[in-house]
Amino acid sequence: MIDQKLLEILACPIDKQPLEDHGDYLVNPRLNKAYPVQDGIPVLLVEEAQDWPVK
User: Fold this and answer.
1) Which PANTHER family match (predicted)?
2) Which letter does DSSP use for residue 39 in this model?
């Protein structure tokens, strides 16, 4: 889980909109993209994004 204050300032690197916390991923539901959270650190790199839902 990402700290709520941190989540409020994080944004999708593609459309600059808010992300949703889904445990191991931060998700942009508008683009159906998921960014991994590794060891509690969000990896907000476009090349690391996966299609949501992650299989």
Assistant:
1) PROTEIN PREY, MITOCHONDRIAL, ZGC:162634
2) T
Give the chain's domains with CATH numbers.
Answer: 4-51 (2.20.25.10)
Q: What is the pTM of this model?
A: 0.93
Taking residue 8's Cβ as centre, other Cβ atoms within 10 Å add up to 10
- Beta-carbon contacts of 1 under 8 Å, excluding residues fewer than 6 positions away, are 21, 23
The mean pLDDT of the chain is 96
Please count the residues of the chain.
55
- 33: its two tokens: 């993209």
Q: How far is Cα 8 from Cα 48, in angstroms, rounded to an integer?
A: 21
Rg of the chain (C-alpha set): 10
